Amino acid sequence: xxxxxxxxxxxxxxxxxxxxxxxxxxxxxxxxxxxxxxxxxxxxxxxxxxxxxxxxxxxxxxxxxxxxxxxxxxxxxxxxxxxxxxxxxxxxxxxxxxxxxxxxxxxxxxxxxxxxxxxxxxxxxxxxxxxxxxxxxxxxxxxxxxxxxxxxxxxxxxxxxxxxxxxxxxxxxxxxxxxxxxxxxxxxxxxxxxxxxxxxxxxxxxxxxxxxxxxxxxxxxxxxxxxxxxxxxxxxxxxxxxxxxxxxxxxxxxxxxxxxxxxxxxxxxxxxxxxxxxxxxxxxxxxxxxxxxxxxxxxxxxxxxxxxxxxxxxxxxxxxxxxxxxxxxxxxxxxxxxxxxxxxxxxxxxxxxxxxxxxxxxxxxxxxxxxxxxxxxxxxxxxxxxxxxxxxxxxxxxxxxxxxxxxxxxxxxxxxxxxxxxxxx
Length: 425
Fold this sequence. Notes:
Blueprint: H1 2-16, E1 25-34, E2 39-49, E3 52-56, E4 66-77, E5 79-84, H2 99-102, H3 105-121, E6 124-129, H4 137-146, E7 154-157, H5 190-203, E8 208-212, H6 233-245, E9 249-254, H7 257-266, E10 270-273, H8 279-288, E11 291-293, H9 309-332, H10 352-359, H11 364-370, H12 373-379, E12 395-399, E13 414-417, E14 420-424
Parallel strand pairs: 1-4, 5-6, 6-7, 8-9, 9-10, 10-11
Antiparallel strand pairs: 1-2, 2-3, 4-12, 12-13, 13-14
Helix pairs in contact: 3-4, 5-6, 6-7, 7-8
């Protein structure tokens, strides 16, 4: 028994070794993509010290420094996904329609450990998690990663998404008395409850607020229309005002035009999905600098066999409209950031979003900007998203040139987070 204990302990400790502070090292590769300019630099050396990029192509390297030779690879910044559900396997696991009443916050946090590792090894070193199950499992996961207990991306958790009673982000479909929640769990009606919901999420450590401004696809809400507006303008304004006072940005789930426009007028920082935009939507978003976080792969993903017919119908209704909205927003120059909605599909498939975006008409370089510099802007951070001196050493590498073949992003062999090598295959 004692031998088994020490074997188990050694395995546990070995899992934590990659999280230790990295010493000075260098990476050599044939190419580096400057995502801002869209230009490829050849024969690059990146010097890393104390988790940050100290220099690119320094005149010389310190003696006895560790050098990682990657050869025929392109270096890129660590990727950022601004719409995940990192503790969830809502629609690809068994019994997803009843998981909310059969599992607990520890269950979700623990399965999030697996998903966090999958996401990080896919090249995503930072994520924004937009709505978890009751009990703040996403906040717990964030803290465990920050403490070095487990390996995963930096997380901006939203805690409980804020929704009207019976709305898209409420837990619906159960008998009366089951999952009847209030403002602490994000279910809020009226200005006062909406403000309380925001304050409660902030109290427990969230880094962003998510509000469900319209109906949605993956819920049992009885809204007749997928895009039906759920919150009034006054309620939305109260949510945004309270969040901004607390230093938190607001992401608004919104499919329908009226709900999108109301949310933008209220001052939200991003529209998630934005499936039915019109000219007014685009004008408002450009005037206010509101980001669009679209999901391209989600409209291509094959739903699970046990998906309710009502959910399938809503998805099929939206799919042709999504392409038109993409085209309208992109051509108008609306700010756009990468957001996969992983958890609806397997987390390991997050990078399939890149090729899906190009199929919707987004250029290859812009898909990469959406997952780097544009996503960093949406988060409100300036320490990541580019490879230059002074930035965090969040670095990935892919074989070949992703500007020629964007599907290279689907299999990332090298991942570094804050100067620590996570993966090198």
